[in-house]
Structures
1.
Amino acid sequence: MIEFDERLRAIRDSHREAAEDLRSRALAVDADPAAMEQHLDSPAFAMIRESSIPRAYRTGAAAASRPDRGSCLESIVGLVELFRGDVATLLSCPSPALAGVFVELLGDEAQKARFYARLADGRTWTFFAMSEEGRGNDATAMESRLEPDGSGGWLLHGAKRYIGHGARGGIGVVFARTGRSPLSIRAALVELPAPGWWAEPLEMVGLRGAYLSELRFDGVPVPGDMLLGQHLPVTRRGIWGALTTFNNMRMQLAAAAVGTGLAMAEYVAEHRKTAPGLDRVLARTEAARHLVHEAAARLDHAPERGYLSSAAKLGATRMAVETAHWAGAALGPAGLLEHPLLEKWTRDVRALEFMDGTSNIQRLHIARGYQSGDADG
């Protein structure tokens, strides 16, 4: 079990306060995720943006209680508390998000400066476009392609689906191949608007704040200096960077499941003081939180070893879905109608199962990690 020192307690407490602001906006964001202007200057959104931008690119000084961006554990401690406020509202915030993780990992200084300059207004969303319809979890089977334009740049062709903020993003990362081998898969920094780019939001049941979208590319121009990882060895450019980023994403999704599970259990405790099974549910949510903290600490020591992060995501999402079932029953036959916030959370948690690999995919990751020795130490 991870023991909290004074710094971790300060991070937890400051993010817990911001969670109340997120929760107060949750139903409005769910009802109309396109109407975001009223939320963009909120204290919680300011904290999220400040915490996720590297110090060199911030316009102001960060508070001492903000997580160290190099520490997965500190980030996850804060995120669990924010997700207790509302996961979809947090995801609706304009921030570097996954694209920022990848740009930091593979971008050169000019690319990083260009990326973070676009985010300075607090009103620019980012996108991380890898998933394609019909390709499942096999990123190496993607069909999007980058073709030389004859003058040192590239033309992007293809399509992506289930891309967060794809239909309202201003800058982001798009994966495509320059050839047929897995090593030919590259990531390009794409800035919008651009000719040949088409995007449309998808109809969502849960996590509406994430604004999942469908994208199509018909010769979108990509300057030659916008391919990420040019300064790195060929084996460290595309898929390697994506796998390292996904280990980080998996921890964030596990934190989202834990935070939402805690929120639902505490909500029921507030409204039904004699709810059957409450003690057991609270114990399970706390156990999931401890596992997520342990996995985050492990990832700080070995960022490429994703065994425990897969185990944490698998356990946390299952706990959250089962907690949603229990919460609906605990509040009675009309409970979800009488408590719209809880009804929204029961929709949101089901989406976590399908992000960054379903539970069956996580079981495969866990099995392979165990066989390769990643479970040790």
Note: The chain has a mean pLDDT of 90.
2.
Amino acid sequence: MLDGLAKSRIDPKKPRKEGLTCTIDKFQGLDTENMRVIAPFIDLVKVYGALPMLVSDEALRRKIRFYHDLGIRVSTGSTITEFAIAESSLERFAKEAEEAGFDVVEIGESSIDLSMAQKKKVTEVIEAAGLEFQWKVGKKDPRHQLDLDDTLRKVDEAVKLGSKKVVIEANEGYNVGIYDEKGMVKWSFVGAMTNEFPPSTFIFEAPLESQQSALIAEFGQRVNLAEVQTDAIASVESQRRGFLAKSAFGVSYVRKDPEGGPASKFIYYIIKTKHPVEQGELMGLSHLPRRTVQAAVEDLKRQGLVVERNSLEDARKKVYQPTHSEWL
């Protein structure tokens, strides 16, 4: 209907490398006919929590075959993986997950803490079973959240271990990970993450439709989203194709002003109004000493408001620009 008017997907065929939409299966009732309609928009289904331990092997295999027949890959959740690790049963878990038909094992540290050596061993066991692994970063408990430094460190470890994508924990979408107590996106936190790693590194859990709309508005159709309920799949795909959903009208694009002293705020104003700009230009325009400019730039990078890139004209020089222009 109205062929040619909707935006085309940049990565239209599965398996996609970007613009992933991941949903969750809690063994809820599914409308099979509607699922067949939206299946082309779903890249991965995660079987919720400890459910694989609570249902019969045949029921689990039947569920996984259903998704495979629709061209959808299936993942365990991190909860059952953490349980298997804590119970020293990882090898058995990986073997049985492969036999059940899972494609991906999600690994997290919500209730456990692993050293880099232990993480490497975990990934080796999963790969030896013929499965892919995907690391999740973050804590489910709002009272025990990772700060920015710990988040970036764990993302870096996951990337070094070979995780193709890194899932960012959101739990119910409130006061966890990149969301505040009202479920709003903490843009300075997200900006600092995408300043260190390309946005394509992440799969952002986004349980609320307002969060899905906000992230698509900021990153465009390439953003990877997880925890999307099945009844919101069509809405997410519509927004990726350029149509506004009802939830999109409540999205706020207002950025926080930079924190810090007058120098940081002044340098941010210059970068925002004249970018890309190199350090020498910042010194000339601000009439501030090099050390002050350097400190201000580092402060703005830390807040996720500014990104640093090599100059296209001279690779030896660095240029700076507002983070927002780099995301789209």
Note: The radius of gyration is 22 Å.
